[in-house]
Amino acid sequence: xxxxxKAMLIGNLGQDPxxxxxxxxxxxxxxxxxxxxxxxxSNGEWQERTxxxxxxxxxxxxxxxxxxxxxxxxxxxEGPIQYSEWEDREGVKRYKTEIKxxxxxxxxSRESSGQQSRSNSxxxxxxxxxxxxxxxxx
Length: 138
Prior knowledge:
Blueprint: E1 7-13, E2 18-21, E3 27-40, E4 46-58, H1 59-68, E5 74-79, E6 81-87, E7 93-100, E8 103-106, E9 123-126
Parallel strand pairs: 4-7
Antiparallel strand pairs: 1-3, 1-5, 2-3, 3-4, 5-8, 6-7, 8-9
């Protein structure tokens, strides 16, 4: 029996990717991606709701994010949902849910992202496999 854990988002970055490096010099990029939903409320009026998603990218994919993405960039993100649990310094249990980016497509035109090109085609980047994702610098 097979199981599937995959999230797919299209949204905008809330800030520039925050890139750090592990002790093994592996890049780790943390980002927040906003998705919007429009719906009619019970009075028939249009409402909009924004959801924020934590996204983490590793290795060359993290470096690509750092080099080509900025606050407001529109992207497609694909990857598994990961849950973390830990105790902080005061002994309080903390929880984190994030999407481990395995595939990313830049949806902005190249001109709007600062690149010189005649093409408006999107660019797809697929993650390298990361063997030691437990080596976090933070």
